[in-house]
Amino acid sequence: MDVNNLKQSHKLLVEYKYEPAKLERGYTNKTLYINVGENRIESKDVPDSMKEKFIGGKGYGLKYLWDATSPETKWNDPENEIVIAGGPLCGITQYPGAGKSLVVTISPMTNIPIDSNVGGYFGPYLKFSGWDALEIQGKSQKDVIIYIDGNNGVIKVEEAPLEAIDGHVISEQLTEMYADSEEDKKNISVISAGTAADHANIGLLNFSFYDMRRKVARLKQAGRGGIGRVFRDKKIKAIVIKFKGTKGDLNKPANQSLINKAGIKLHKQIHDYDDVQCRMRQIGTANIIEVMDEYDLLPTHNYQYGGHPDTHKISSNVFVEKYITQGMPDGCWYGCSLSCAKAADHFELKTGPYKGHKVTIDGPEYENAAGLGSNCGIFDPEMILEGNFYCDTYGVDTISFGTICAFAMECYERGIIDKEVTGGLDLRFGNAEAQMELLHQMSRGEGFGALIGLGVRQLKEIFVKEHGADADFLNDIGMEQKGLEVSEYLPKESLAQQGGYGLTNKGPQHDEAWLIFMDMVNNQIPTFEDKAEALHYFPMFRTWFGLMGLCKLPWNDTTPPDNHLTDEPAKMPEHVQHYVNIYNGVTGMNIDKNQLILQSERVYNFQRIFNIRRGKGLRQHDAMPYRSMGPVTIEEYESRQERYDNQLRELLDYDPEGKTTEEKIKVMREYRVSQYEQLTDAVYKRRGWTPNGVPTAEHLRKIGMDLPELIDVIEKHI
Predict the structure, then answer these.
(1) Topology (CATH level 3) of domain 3-242
(2) Coil, helix or strand at residue 269
(3) 3-state class of 72 per DSSP?
(4) What distance in Å separates the CA atoms of residue 574 and residue 585, rounded to the nearest whole number?
(5) Where's the Aldehyde ferredoxin oxidoreductase N-terminal domain (predicted)?
(6) What is the DSSP letter of 112?
(7) Which residues fall within 8 angstroms of residue 560, CB to CB, at 6 or more apart?
(8) What is the mean pLDDT of the chain?
(9) How confident is the model at residue 379 (pLDDT cuts 50, 70, 90)?
(10) CATH of range 274-485; options 3.40.50.11440, 3.20.20.70, 3.10.580.10, 1.10.569.10
(11) Which fold has domain 495-558+591-714?
(12) Nearest-5° angle of CA 200, CA 204, CA 206?
């Protein structure tokens, strides 16, 4: 349908005119509040106390969500909010990776706050339009589109009955609708979900940016925790922002030279070394597929194994040579020379409602290749790309979908479920056609695909209740924690990475701590105290990116040539100083690297207490499924028997000779669970928490977060 006809079908519900606030030192000090149930739009002032304690980005999202909700608020209650915020560094163009925004809501998967870091142009455009954050609350009765014109200071909420819902279609439609010309399309960013997000708790949000070279609206994802499900439950079809006039000084920094110097140095480093380091400009995060396989870390067959003989079929070079467009600068925000946002152009789809269409696919990311691919026993690069596309456009979290499918496939192969349960689908590992059918069913809200969209936690309950499955076994092999599916790394041989997944606030997502190489490969953190220190520092440091509006990849996916000579090479000290300098350059502050961590500690502990207020956030909620720690089944043990037998001898002084595999598994399990519990003790102590995982009042005072509302929560648990 012609976009003019689409626009004519809109019905204006409310219009709000404003004078865009002036940006100064990274902040506008204004938040835009929209209630789609009441058709109400307001401007809120951001107090200095909130800037001091919560900084921006994720911090603002958590604070607004806390204030808007009660401990009993459900994800689909009108008072649940979706909060989108960049931080003070969001939108600078001199330093790579500064186009991020953070999205926060109560998750339908976990029933606690979820935060997701996303690229695209929306975050910077929101700030340039005069807003540090966007709060969305309420539930509309009919599908609506929110439109923000940042140049003219106009915001509209309109009924929008005719636009598509699927991400790649509606992003193109609305980019065309609101742009004045082809050149103007780069000034449009669209947030959308997809048809699966109408039904599946694992729905995501797509944030668009217009690729002027490819002439297509491309999509980046706020993927984890079901944010897209909340978006569609509120009957929001899309949010559109338009801002014309992007340039390098819009943040009105206090000292531009500090930012420029850091940027020039990193740009040169990327230019000189990326091709021989991580090859981000060639293939993006998929560069590590074969590396993970080599180190037995690539999740295979529902995390049973760490590699597969067919991994070479989906190695990074296969995607580079056959699918991913080369020789074209990629990036999801201006000035990012790391250029990891790779795309496969003119890919012809083989299945589903868009069969025969030639599309641009953003990917594959490593997580997509591992989750949709190896973890489900699928080693067909074209089916991985097909699944990648449909997950994006339907609004489905690829990590959760891959992990859920892998779980269902193992249950099928073990006879826990059968074709009668799956609706005739043969869910053996490697059946890519069955995986795709699940995805298409999910988009329609029907069949076994609709069940898949509930997530591993609910599937376990269903399989026990309705099909007589062994609950203990399903809890061992179901790779979820707090209700969120584990992302795509096999942590069995890395105790620190088990903690990096389990001792998180939002659930097992690697954006808090990725310690596999430090721990397992380089043996840099041998003791519990060393691991605890790493599980303090790295989650706090990575939290900082979410406060600022930054991507973490320029920090550790490109390396200074002399980094190995530094005292703490894993921390990338030169890059840490860059971040200190650009923060001081934008804000005019004078923090050091220790104050950077303090900023994050305040928000991190706030999120922990937020969880506790909602009935989670204690030690029992940090337990991990045993498959993340060691071999659950005979097949797993015997696939790595020499390794495990040697560990029994060397670590436990236990002689495995003449013992059955079941006996050895039992001894190994007792040891590994004990190790995780000791690690938990050490991490809680380092973080200033009680043995039950509750931040102490003393620690809150130390970091300047002894707010009365937080003290009130923790006193009930100490």
Answers:
(1) Aldehyde Ferredoxin Oxidoreductase;  A, domain 1 (3.60.9)
(2) helix
(3) coil
(4) 16
(5) 27-247
(6) S
(7) 269, 572, 574, 575
(8) 96
(9) very high
(10) 1.10.569.10
(11) 1.10.599
(12) 140
